[in-house]
């Protein structure tokens, strides 16, 4: 089933990395495998040292340049500065290679490249995604050469997408491809998942193992978390209601992507409090969505009967001991240094070839709709009055940020970029992450999966989430701006 999904949803969304394949294929049956084979536990250091490094890089706030950020941001800024003289040329080359490889794959697959798993992973994509990559490459060339239709290479359309979205993504995803394994490969998520089992059951009406899906989405990749949940629904681990709630509550964009959005929205100087506010908003939204709305009323049916028994604690074992055992078991299956680096290299190529072209296409076309047509002015008109009543800064422009996120996750941040008030940028930029439901990536994956979620379900859930998360973002903005 994983291969059939990969043929529908290509690129980094399905074939994110070898880590995602492990998560999708193995972790869904971890309990049964653990009980049957009882793999030896890794030494504690194999779990602790990489996990501490991952926490330091991705989750620890640091003071830098009169702002609060994370170490990954400091590292990627340094890399970006180092490659700045050739950044634009390097970016347009990568986008062009991604498009050319996909276009020429029918011919390349008959050569020695056809036997390469990495080449197939990067270039064997369906026609829709070939078109997205190709159009993205053409737009990138228009911007780079300053030629072609002005509407596609304008300062607020193609140029802004190329420089303010694709360039940060290029650097951050290339770096995180090598570093994210510190969080995902050595047991940190299993450790957190076991500790959060009881609260997940009580707070969200979800099984404890959903904590792992959720942690994956928050600290690794929303694509990985989303596909993990879909896979476990197909295996019968989750029923329809559980799978729908998990997908529409916790598949939030990853930390690296949140950092990109913060940079686009010009709020990266307050990244740590901004991101913590988003986490609080998403938890509140999950509490509500798991109990009300169309997703909470989905059936309790399963696609197939899941026969694996639930993992039980060993005699006399408390929850912390069980979490450590789960973490050390996962660390015991982690790759060696060579395989780890190779997986990072392959994931980095997959990210850059598969992601940058489609983002260039979708974000540019969305920005044309937002900034060159009155469509979203009409849709946001009722919100302008409400925001003005609440004395929200720059209400006419900010109002568009509340509705454009349904089209593409970058658009609220793109709107926020043009706002002068830091308060408004904090709130509108936060919507890029907290609204969660957007069609350009998330919607395509969900609607083409076997989950019983309709387009109307997505629209209603988007509206409900916006109503829930906005007051939390406003409160956070009051406290820190």
Please give a structural write-up.
- This protein is an all-alpha fold and 481 residues long.
- It has helices at residues 2-8, 18-25, 30-37, 44-58, 71-82, 87-108, 117-123, 127-145, 150-153, 158-179, 181-184, 188-195, 197-204, 210-219, 222-234, 240-250, 255-264, 271-289, 319-332, 337-372, 375-389, 395-401, 411-417, 422-434, 439-447, 455-480, and strands at residues 61-64, 67-70.
- A two-stranded antiparallel sheet has the order 1-2.
- The protein is globular and about 70 Å long.
- Residues 1-37 have low confidence and may be disordered.
Sum up the structure in keywords:
26 helices; 2 strands; 481 residues; disordered N terminus; mainly alpha
Write the layout of secondary structure elements.
Elements: H1 2-8, H2 18-25, H3 30-37, H4 44-58, E1 61-64, E2 67-70, H5 71-82, H6 87-108, H7 117-123, H8 127-145, H9 150-153, H10 158-179, H11 181-184, H12 188-195, H13 197-204, H14 210-219, H15 222-234, H16 240-250, H17 255-264, H18 271-289, H19 319-332, H20 337-372, H21 375-389, H22 395-401, H23 411-417, H24 422-434, H25 439-447, H26 455-480
Antiparallel strand pairs: 1-2
Helix pairs in contact: 2-15, 5-10, 6-8, 6-20, 7-20, 8-20, 10-17, 10-20, 12-14, 12-19, 14-15, 15-16, 16-18, 17-24, 18-24, 18-26, 21-22, 22-23, 23-24, 24-26
